[in-house]
Amino acid sequence: MPELPEVETIVCELRAQCLGRSITSAELLRGDMLKRTADTFDSFAAFFMGRFFQGIDRTGKFITFHLDNGNKLIAHLGMTGKFISAKNGDPDPAHLCSRYRFADGGWLGHVDIRRFGRLELYRSDEEIESLKGLGIDPLSSQFEADSLLKFVHSPGGNKRRTRAVHTLLMDQSLIAGIGNIYASEALYLAGIRPSRHGGKLTKRDRERLAEAVVQVLRASIRACGTTISDYRRVDDKPGSFKEMLAVYGRPGEPCQACGSEIKKVKIGGRSAFYCGKCQR
DNA sequence: CCAACGTCCTGCGTGC
DNA sequence: TGCACGCAGGACGTTG
User: What integer is the mean pLDDT of A108-133?
Assistant: First the structure.
């Protein structure tokens, strides 16, 4: 499940793979992946033909491909999305959703087994709606403990939030890029229970949590992300952060700090993992 | 306005 | 052995 570190890894590799290569054709093989516009197989192809990728960047878990004419392709990988680098004659992988062929014979494939991901096309200066509502990127220089004040109070109201901090961490409109894995890992590092109400976080909690978020995301980027099952880099190699996970996917194992058993609970319909002794 | 829940989708593990 | 079922989860739409 690509979260911020996995998407960051993929974007770096996409830049190295794709920037400046002339696109001769593009195919939309799964029309249901394209949202927002009613482009057809033909207009999708025309959108890319004769162009090249001038820049590729990440906002939260979204990838923006900037074409040289100012148009943009937005991609979200959902649960099982990935990009693969292939050469002329390579067989189509299963679940190929879209493909971008380059003049040198190579192509970039976009694969998504469960199709929770999405593609969007934007022409010239259209506002990118999918990025508009996103919260702060935790790797930006503006991210600090005060960024988590939104966890305590809603922007407008005075009432303290009752949603679990685990759920708040995954709310893309508050912080962009954290999913289920890094929510559990950051809360473990910060010593905070995932079920704790956002409104009950102290200033000290928010400082520790903000620091933990940055720490775990940066560490995972250094390991090229976490491969549990589906996530793969563009070169098909797995990320290696799985072995560094302290609690996610480790129910019943001893906590590395205190030795007590790691617990698994459902919060907001999602699995959260924590140490009942270290996290309060 | 805020929160909670159902929905989409496929592959894999479990139990009968 | 084979089948049915439950589970995994990001974002969005609907409901409370």
Answer: 91
Number of separate domains in chain A: 2
- Nucleotide nearest A156, CA–C1', reads B1
Taking all residues of chain A, what is their mean pLDDT, rounded to a whole number?
Answer: 92
Q: Which residues contact A65 (CB under 8 A, 6 or more apart)?
A: A14, A18, A53, A55, A56, A72, A73, A74, A75
Per the CB < 8 A criterion, the answer to whether A180 and A170 are in contact is: yes
Q: What is the pTM of this model?
A: 0.95
The reply to whether A184 Cβ lies less than 7 angstroms from strand C is no
CATH of the domain at A72: 3.20.190.10
Catalytic residue among A115, A200, A264, A270: A270
A118 labelled catalytic: no
pLDDT in tens, A48-83: 999 999 999 999 999 999 999 999 999 999 989 999
Split at pLDDT 50, 70, 90, the class of A157 is: low
Kindly report the bases of strand C lying within 7 A of a protein C-beta atom. Answer: 7-12
Mean pLDDT in residue range A150-174: 88
Looking at the domain assignment, is residue A137 inside a domain?
Answer: no
Q: Which of A135, A132, A133, A162 is nearest to A148 (CA)?
A: A135
Show which of A109, A132, A155 is a domain's final residue: A132
Asked if residue A195 is part of any domain, the answer here is yes
- Would residue A280 count as lying in a domain? no
A122 and A182 both lie in a single domain: no
Answer for A260: CB within 7 Å of strand B. Answer: no
Active-site residue A264, yes or no? no
CA–CA distance, A33 with A117 (Å, rounded to integer):
7
Q: Which domain holds residue A72?
A: 4-132
Taking the C1' atom of every nucleotide in all shown strands and the CA of A159, the nearest one is B2
